[in-house]
Here is the input.
Amino acid sequence: MKILLNNRSEDLDAQELNVTELLKLKNFTWKMLVVRVNGKVVRKHEYDSVTISDGDEVTVLHLVTGG
Amino acid sequence: MQICFCGKLSDNERFSIFVTSIWGRLINYLNSKHTAMHWLYETLKTKTVGIAGCGGLGSNCAMALARVGVGRLIIADFDVVSDSNLNRQYFFRDQIGKLKVYALKENLQRVNPEVKVNAFDLRLCSNDIVEIFSDCDVIVEAFDLSKMKQMIIETVLMYMPEKYIVSGVGLAGWGENNMLATRFYDKLIICGDGEIEVSEDLPPIAPRVGIVAHMQANQVLEILLGKMPYKKSQE
Here is the structure.
């Protein structure tokens, strides 16, 4: 499937993935994230239940302490 | 130079110079109503910006917005000014021990008495954010802890999707100017290097924190005023 990940086009072998699987596949191991799929926020407890398929737009933001 | 010749001029000529000079001043005055600064001032004074956190990012961002004349700033923080804040935050030594929101309000209004400041002395939670920032044109995320950054970003995206939120992420240490950038995700905009976390080796200190705070303020202006009228030269 082809998705738009953080404004970049990505070709992935899988036909469908949940958020946990995508984060693992892309090696996003950071602790504090904000995830959006097609504009909708996906909170941590929803990572296993929200699936990503062809054409989806995904944003994964990494937040770090400092201010 | 005119004064040197005045002695040799007739009354009529002197009167003519007087009229010209008055007219010149009038034209200047009328023109001043159409200058960029006048337009900036008139536009910004009608705007409201919310600032969540009054530390290194929030205090410096708020000061920049007050200086350019944003009409109302809604600021929130629970902390008090301490000695260790003075390496980067817009407070003074004689304000140590004061609540940051009130110390900052005082400093902002010393610079620009026209700016209205609504100060909230509280540790913001999701409900507060929706309530106190509901009137804002833009919200600035200026927290310290990443879990608080996550909380406000998720809150605004979920419950206030019409609002712009400008967040500061990645400002620790020094140097590396060119790592600092602005990233756009619809109405969520992130300023900073996006990766360098504060640690014992990489503390938050004035220059880099100040740059990111001013990048946030600059981004807020672009949201409030639109892109500036400048055509980039061809590279």
Summary: The interface with chain B takes residues 7, 31-34, 36, 39, 41, 43, 59, 61-67 of chain A (CB under 8 Å).
